[in-house]
Amino acid sequence: DTGVSQNPRHKITKRGQNVTFRCDPISEHNRLYWYRQTLGQGPEFLTYFQNEAQLEKSRLLSDRFSAERPKGSFSTLEIQRTEQGDSAMYLCASSSELQGEQFFGPGTRLTVL
Amino acid sequence: SQQGEEDPQALSIQEGENATMNCSYKTSINNLQWYRQNSGRGLVHLILIRSNEREKHSGRLRVTLDTSKKSSSLLITASRAADTASYFCATAPTQFYFGTGTSLTVIP
């Protein structure tokens, strides 16, 4: 399968714990995006990379969230000191610079107890 | 605030009928994209229309774009039960912003 993959698919954690998610984009795509989606809502933009550079970060993103893409390939999203309000589906997408259309992974569903 | 806003929020039709949903946006765009999301699954890209295009077709999908009104419509012809999903628009260069979507139910 050469699509976008995300791990884990599900994560249950207790409030206050740190969690890390991984996204592996389509190999030839140099743009990578992270979104958060809650029930009944559209995806909410979190951050975006072009190669290894983080070019944009949502103003809504608290300092507890950090994302990296160290070698311009896979990316990780870390949430520190999780809160119940962080419970959501975290989606990753990738695109090639010229096309713009985004290819989404299946998401990681986070539940904070 | 969201860039793309879909309308209606929910739509229910009989199989075989056509479904039309609309998207309005606020700022200048390079292109507009439509995505589909089946319940509990990831988003799938449907079609991209560039700002210099007025209409585009892909199979049973027809997309129009009116940049003067900052709006787009997605028409699904001869709907099928498998078209039941949520549909979202997203705009570029600020393609990062999606609306709340139109929930389409196609009744067999």
Percent of residues in beta strands of chain B: over 45%
Q: Kindly report the oligomeric state of this protein.
A: heterodimer
Task: Round the Cα radius of gyration of chain B to an integer and report it.
Answer: 13 Å
How far do the termini of chain A sit from each other? Answer: 33 Å
> Residue ranges of chain A: pLDDT <50 for 5 or more in a row?
none
Radius of gyration of chain A: 13 Å
What does this structure look like?
The complex is a heterodimer of chains A (113) and B (108). Helix content of chain A is 0%, strand content 50%. The mean pLDDT of chain A is 92. Chain A is an all-beta fold and 113 residues long. In chain A, strand 4 and strand 5 (44-50) form a beta hairpin. In chain A, the strands form two sheets. In chain A, strands 2, 4, 5, 6, 9, 10 and 11 form a seven-stranded mixed sheet that branches. A four-stranded antiparallel sheet of chain A has the order 1-3-8-7, with no helix packed on it. Chain A has strands at residues 5-7, 10-13, 19-24, 31-37, 44-50, 53-57, 65-68, 75-79, 88-95, 103-104, 108-112. Chain A starts with a strand and ends with a strand. Chain A is globular. With 108 residues, chain B is mainly beta. Chain B is built from no helices and ten strands. Chain B has strands spanning 5-7, 10-14, 19-24, 31-37, 43-50, 55-58, 61-66, 71-76, 85-92, 102-107. In chain B, the strands form two sheets. A five-stranded antiparallel sheet of chain B has the order 1-3-8-7-6, with no helix packed on it. In chain B, a hairpin with a 2-residue loop joins strand 6 and strand 7. Chain B is globular, with a radius of gyration of 13 Å. At the A-B interface, strand 5 and strand 10 of A face strand 4, strand 5 and strand 9 of B.
